[in-house]
Amino acid sequence: MQDNTTLTLGRPDDFHLHLRDGAALSAVVAFTARQFGRALVMPNLKPPVTTVAIAAGYRERILRAVGENASFDPLMTLYLTDNTATDEVARVADSDFVHAFKYYPAGATTNSDSGVSALKNVYPVLDAMQRHGVILCVHGEVTDPTTDVFDREAIFVEGALQQIVRDFPALKIVVEHITTREAAEFVAAMSPNIAATITPQHLLYNRTSIFTGGIRPHLYCLPILKRETHRLALIDAATSGSPKFFLGTDSAPHAKNAKEACCGAAGCFTSHAALELYAEAFNADDSLDKLDDFASRFGAAFYGLPRNVGTVTLRRESWTPPDDFAFGNETIVPLTVGRTLPWKLL
Fold first, then answer.
1. Known catalytic residue at 250
2. Do the strands 311-319 and 6-10 form a parallel or antiparallel pair, or are they unpaired?
3. Three-state SS for 207?
4. Distance between CA atoms of 38 and 244, rounded to whole angstroms?
5. Catalytic pick among 73, 250, 292, 293
6. Which single residue of 50, 102, 124, 332 has CA 20 to 30 Å from 346?
């Protein structure tokens, strides 16, 4: 529901979120709990979350950090490795709180060193996932160091992803944080069991943005921002009304000194203003009427979950988020640093 000044959505879900652990977790989780009813929490901790038992402990820490009065349900994932046991798939299927496995190609992004070194190594697990109806979330990039960083996703889609879809046609797959026209077109053309999440930064920025006014490390993420033609393809996908595309922020907090470094960490922190950023992107395309489905309906339906109870409301109001936030003993600089936003969550 909307008028000229307000936009009301069903309470949405974030189907791709990094919360970290310890003091870092406590510093950021409230931003998500304020806006979202649920969030799919990524497992790339150190050490990674590889079993249902480990995920149960992590979930309890998240709930303690949120506090008893918050209405927020963390949806857990397991980190897929070369050594994942097929028995773990059955335990996930029997669990009421673990909802997917996450496939990181080894070395693709933050804390992915324990990821899959060769696709064939996890074929028995993928077969078990297909049989048990467990979802596979995919970080879709090749890791060959000779490959241009801007081509890593498209090559993964054309190779490994097509192979997985061909060999496991009933497997439900979410291609996470897509960044290219090739990925959007692939997902759109596949069967209904193939879907994708899209981040706010990939809807609002292109690769030129990283270098506007000097190098902007807080826009650096993996997969990296792409050409404007790809950003426009993502806008078309997100606003298409297709249930294959839904909200996943990939909000990934890193301390300021880890981002503003000679080898800066990859990841954008957006949880403090996630819905405001999506509203900005959809409004720029004159597609605010499509945001409720994208944010609050399609992801839940793909994961077999009911819609959340309640609503959230944004107002068309200019405001400037803080330039930094407390992050344990450090500070964190958000994606929005130095920007005024046109929408504000009430």
1. yes
2. antiparallel
3. helix
4. 19
5. 250
6. 332
First-residue to last-residue Cα distance in the chain: 15
CB-CB contact of 215 with 165 (8 Å): no
Q: Is 243 exposed, middle or buried (0-12, 13-18, 19+ CB in 10 A)?
A: middle
Assess whether the previous peptide bond of 223 is cis (omega < 30° from 0).
yes
Q: How many CA atoms lie within 13 A of 284 on its CB side?
A: 18
pLDDT per position as a tens digit, 34-87? 999 999 999 999 999 999 999 999 999 999 999 976 799 999 999 999 999 999
- What element of type H or E holds 59? helix 52-66
Average pLDDT of the chain, as a whole number: 96
Residues present in the chain in total? 346
Token digits of residue 21: 């652990």
**Cis omega before residue 47 (within 30°)?**
yes
Q: How far is CA 329 from CA 31, 46, 100, in A?
A: 18, 19, 32
Beta strands 325-327; 330-332: pairing state:
antiparallel
Nearest to 267 by CA among 255, 247, 249, 251: 251
- The torsion angles phi and psi of 301, rounded to 5 degrees, stand at -65, -40
Residue given tokens 């996932």 in the structure block: 129
Tell me the C-alpha distance between 291 and 300, whole Å: 14
Alpha helices, DSSP H, located in 67-210: 86-94, 123-132, 152-156, 162-167, 181-189, 200-204
User: Strand, helix or coil at 109?
Assistant: coil
Task: Please state, in angstroms and rounded to a whole number, the distance separating the CA atoms of residues 48 and 55.
Answer: 10
- In three-state secondary structure terms, 248 is coil
Helix axes of 123-132 and 86-94: crossing angle, nearest 10 degrees: 20
Give 131-147 pLDDT, tens digit per residue. Answer: 999 999 999 999 999 99
Are 194 and 165 within 8 A, CB to CB?
A: yes
